[in-house]
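Wed. Picked up where I left off yesterday with HD domain-containing protein. The coffee machine is broken again, so keeping this brief.
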Amino acid sequence: MMKFFQRKAPTTALTPAVELPDLNINIVKRFASSDWKLGEIHGLSHWQRVERNGIILSLEKLNGTFCIRKDINITVVRLFAYLHDKCRLDDGWDFEHGIRAAKMLHSIRRTLLKELSDNEFSLLEKACELHTTEHKTGEPTIDTCFDADRLDLNRVGIEPSPNKMATEQGAYYAEYPHKLEQIKSLLF
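Structure written out below (tokens, as returned):
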């Protein structure tokens, strides 16, 4: 017997009152953009959309208030958005850019990323390294990073597939992209 199910909407925020942890993301944006020569397919506008997607994927409603889920490290998600493509060599099929990005993180560990705990650094490193090669890790923060990036595939003519998402939230927004755009318009 086959079971059919309907994806339920994630309990995510529709309020601009969500407080994000203090993070000077502008310094990270400047670093990511420095020496960037590839354009916007994998550049700043993509990274900003990945950050917004990651924030939305990280939200839940608790006691009537929308907040960042406790199992998601939003700092890592936001840093991933701006650093995961930093080491691309071209806008085409650059299979090892995630590995290069993960290695590059070590060069900024004691400066730009000095406030990260060892665990946060490890999560960011793994998310960058694996985002092009792994479907799902089972680690909520890393999987949220993957889906935040995948939900922006339409910029290169690929429709995000619910079956290729690593999280339930990502699958929902891949199936109902208009809901993601609706939330973006309310939050950002």
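Quick read: Strands lie at 59-62, 65-68.
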